[in-house]
Amino acid sequence: MDTMGEVGEMKALEVKRITPVLFVKKIEDVLHFWVERLGFAKTIEVPDGGRLGFVSLQKGSTEVMYQTYASTDNLDPTMSEVARRGLTFLYVEVDDLDAVIAAMEDIAMVKPVDTTFYGMREFTVQEPGGHYVTFAQPIVTPTA
After folding, report:
1. What are phi and psi of 67, to 5 degrees?
2. Is 32 helix (H, G, I), strand (E, B) or coil?
3. Mean pLDDT, the chain, as a whole number?
């Protein structure tokens, strides 16, 4: 059955969720960042030897997953190579940027708090696994 409508448009398709999977050397290094600082909960843990090989972290409907580089060695060689290539950038919209700034008080900001031309107040940190995370809050503009 054709899923394309006229002019190449997709017929109605409901996307349930998009979840990033970030690859790191050691999962244990990133847990404090997400669990203790930001209040995420571990929903899935998969051991790999004496360490974690995979973890899923969730807060509300937001989820982020981590997998170790070492655990990718059991995957297809192409997937293992791709996982080891680079870092990821996450853009996280929050409802209280000041609370996140307080939670990150001893983490150096890669990009300091700034107000963007597209109406967001945001800043960026590098989490312990090396990935960059930008936290942003929409600017509330007074109505006339």
Report:
1. -140, 145
2. helix
3. 88
Q: Encoding tokens for residue 68?
A: 């170790």
Q: What span, in angstroms and rounded, lies between the C-alpha atoms of 83 and 91?
A: 20
The DSSP call for residue 6 is G
In angstroms, the first-to-last Cα distance of the chain is 51
How many whole angstroms separate alpha carbon 91 and alpha carbon 89? 7
Q: How many domains does the chain have?
A: 1
Q: What is the pLDDT of residue 1?
A: 44
Share of the chain above pLDDT 70, in %: 90
Contact of 56 with 63, CB cutoff 8 Å: yes
In terms of Cα–Cα distance, which of 108, 129, 134, 138 is closest to 65?
129
CATH number of the domain that residue 96 is part of: 3.10.180.10
Rounded to two decimals, what is the model's pTM?
0.79
C-alpha span between 55 and 106 (Å, rounded):
25
Domain interval for residue 38: 17-138
- Tell which residue, 16, 22, 19, 17, has the closest CA to residue 89: 22
User: What's the maximum distance between 2 C-alpha atoms anywhere in the chain?
Assistant: 61
